[in-house]
Amino acid sequence: MKIQIAPDPKTLGQTAGNDAAGLIREAISKNGSANVILATGTSQFETLNSIINDKGIDWSRVVMFHLDEYIDLPITSPASFRKYLKERFLEKIPTIGSAFLIDGELDPKAECERLGFLIKKYPIDVALIGIGENGHIAFNDPPADFETREPYIVVELDEACRKQQLGEGWFPSLNDVPRRAISMSVHQIMLSKNIICSVPDKRKAVALKDCFENEVSNLRPASILQRHNSCTCYLDEESASLLTRR
Fold it and tell me: pLDDT tens digits, residue range 137-169?
């Protein structure tokens, strides 16, 4: 795992997005196609914009998956990750080869099986992820399941995770934040050939210190990234402010 520190969130996003775009172009050049995972949330705004603005990607050769979605949340909700990706990405990239979105309104077990079958056919070249205030990756809250080999799993969201979603303005009250979600598993994320992890903001500083400067533990889910051979974490000065090794 490598760490890059930018002066501000915008520069962080542009750098992460530019590097991700380069990896996507490289995969297309080498393999004829690229399989990617996209994350959502406020940490991804600038990163996604930077990728969208890259003129060198042949999107017809790209297959997209995403990380997680709430169970029983309508796609019309402002907090829906399907809505987020459709509006912020897919509507701007109409030529994309395929996009496999998680439908949290379907039977969760069947949806996990459907997506698991699909992603096994498309080994991931580039995964864009973030890290939560509680150290989660995707919706794998602590103690995260590091053992399951299922690509997608049903998870219970802890209170810290739900409070983060409220604090970011996605829901009007804590009671409105769903308690369950479908999440890509830790093992599946770690199978990605390259991981681009964007983590701006002071409120992530404690989690980053815990995950990056302690031993790997499922109580600090993002600590598993220390074991990935091609993971770069893009931080800004505020999110990196508590790190002693930079």
Answer: 999 999 999 999 999 999 999 999 999 999 989
* Calpha distance 87→81 (Å, rounded): 10
DSSP 3-state of 163: helix
Q: Domains in the chain and their CATH numbers?
A: 2-236 (3.40.50.1360)
Q: What residue has token string 């042949």? A: 58
d(CA 243, CA 204): 11
Helix, strand, coil share (%) of the chain residues, nearest 5: 40, 20, 40
DSSP β-ladder status, 194-199 and 231-236? parallel
b/e code 29-53 from CB counts within 10 Å (16+ = b): eeeebbbbbbbbbebbbbbbbbbee
Calpha distance 211→98 (Å, rounded) = 34
180-184, strands of its sheet edge to edge: 68-70, 180-184, 152-156
Got the DSSP string for 98-113? EEE---TTS-HHHHHH
Other CB atoms within a 10 A radius of the CB of residue 178 amount to 17
What residues contact residue 229 under an 8 Å CB cut-off, 6+ apart? none
Phi, psi of 228 (to 5 degrees): -90, 135
Q: What pLDDT, in 10s, does the model give residues 17-49? A: 999 999 999 999 999 999 999 998 887 889 999
